[in-house]
Amino acid sequence: MAEIVKKPLGWFKAKPQARKRFDEKELRQLGESLKVRQLQPVVCLPDGTIIAGERRVRAAKLAGMSELDVRIIYDPLTEADFKWSQFTENLQRQDLTGYEQWRGCVELLQYHRGWNQKDLAEHLHVDPSMILRMLSPSKCIEAVQTALAEDKIGISDCYAISRMSEAEQATALAMKLGGASRDLLASYARRQANGDAPVVRTSRVKCELGDGLSVILAGKELGLDEVIEALSMAQKEARKARDQNLDVKTWSAVMRDRARKGGQ
To answer: Going by C-beta distance under 8 Å and a sequence separation of 6 or more, which residues neighbour residue 26?
Structure first.
């Protein structure tokens, strides 16, 4: 049974949940919207404990509101039901951090001991591969988990790293924190899985593109992964220069000066 009533903001009680971070700018925008019209009520237990809608409560406080519409649920909820409701609502918003996704999935599996990853995917209505990725930090070393919590890496990075040994994970994390792209990290993971086969390297690479076009790369011991990374970086910088209305000669000079200053 449920009813919708208005309650003062001081009535609401928040419990720990998967979401740990709330963007103040987004909350202020939401608050202004709530002042015009509240489309969805906050869902609470009779004592004011929030089941769904903590963002709305926080936003209303920032906007200087005094009350919100609330749907009060009188049916008894277990702690597992409570966690399930919170995480499902947050996941549907698709703005949880990688760390929050991981911890949310771990908590649900802890409360439902008989579930496997396929069961969790079915209940969340997502592809099993998504659950595999969201749970991948559990297979990573503590340093990787800490980097995820600090938003220094993402879930996709954790998934690539989780396929390596602990020693390899430390190396891969250092690569990522040093600026390696997700593609380069995944390539490193594949090499480790295939027995870390020797990589052919050269100091100069010329790639003929046809129609008289060619790309030349020079550097210390270039392998194919380094070539991919360099071309990707060059493409990104060239597009940025185009957006800034730079011509090709100016862009080349800017890149040369930046390299001389150590990439700053």
So the answer is: none
Same domain, 170 and 214: no
Reported as a single tens digit per residue, the pLDDT across 194-236 is 655 545 567 787 888 778 888 888 877 676 667 777 777 788 8
HEC readout, 25-75: HHHHHHHHHHHHCCCCCEEECCCCEEEECHHHHHHHHHCCCCEEEEEEECC
Alpha-carbon separation of residue 111 from 78, 108, 115, 166 (angstroms): 10, 5, 9, 28
From 39, 72, 90, give the residue that closes a domain.
90
Check if the beta carbon of residue 30 is closer than 8 Å to that of residue 65.
no
- Show which of 56, 75, 90 is a domain's final residue: 90
Residues 91-121: pLDDT tens digits? Answer: 655 567 888 888 888 888 887 888 888 888 8
pTM tops 0.85:
no
pLDDT band per the 50, 70, 90 thresholds, residue 147:
very high
Counting the structural domains of the chain, the total is 3
DSSP at 153: S
| Domain of residue 27, residue span | 2-90
CATH number for the domain harbouring residue 122 = 1.10.10
The DSSP output letter for 101 is: H
